[in-house]
Design a protein that fits this description.
The chain is built from five helices and four strands, in the order αααβαββαβ. The protein is of the alpha+beta class. The longest helix is centred in the first third of the chain and has 13 residues, at 33-45. It starts with a helix and ends in a 24-residue tail after the last strand.
Length: 164
């Protein structure tokens, strides 16, 4: 999917503030409002913009303690992995879930009220599942997250070598 400089500028601006009006977006990117509107619509239709989300302060909603929990599943079959993934993703404590390779099958990012809540999540939720073979928890002290993801640069063909 080719993205030109305007597409990149629109994406950068929307990632910084998705609530701005189309008119503000047009001014910030130096185009007319109709051009801005059409380009953003095209980015949505192409699936490049997949949605708009509200950022939530975890402390303000009573979940200031974060942890990353590595989980190993046994037996490692597709139905067991998919079943666990669907179950874990729906838990209210889960704010991110990764299916991984290596020693563990999952990395679950959770937010809980306190360390007792983390303990209860691991002991009462995760280890009660018979397919869970191993769990390792890592407390998160700070979570720095990039708010603006630039698209990867387009690959450029290697220069051709001419024979002389």
């Amino acid at each position: 999917m080719e993205l030109d400089a305007l597409d990149r500028a629109l994406l950068r601006e929307l990632q910084n503030d998705a609530r701005q009006t189309n008119r503000e977006l047009a001014v910030r990117t130096g185009v007319s409002p109709s051009t801005s509107l059409e380009r953003v619509r095209a980015l949505r239709e192409r699936g490049i913009i997949s949605g708009y989300h509200a950022a939530v302060d975890l402390e303000a909603v009573g979940r200031p303690v974060q942890a990353l929990i590595s989980v190993r599943i046994r037996p490692p079959s597709r139905p067991v992995i998919e079943g666990f993934r669907e179950w874990a993703a729906q838990l209210p404590e889960t704010i991110g879930l990764f299916v991984t390779s290596g020693a563990h099958d999952f990395l679950i990012h959770v937010a809980v009220p306190d360390t007792n809540g983390l303990y209860a999540f691991v002991i009462d939720r995760l280890t009660e599942r018979r397919e869970v073979a191993d769990v390792q928890s890592t407390m998160v002290y700070e979570h720095a997250q990039s708010r603006c993801i630039d698209p990867a640069p387009a690959e450029r063909p290697a220069p051709s070598r001419r024979r002389r």
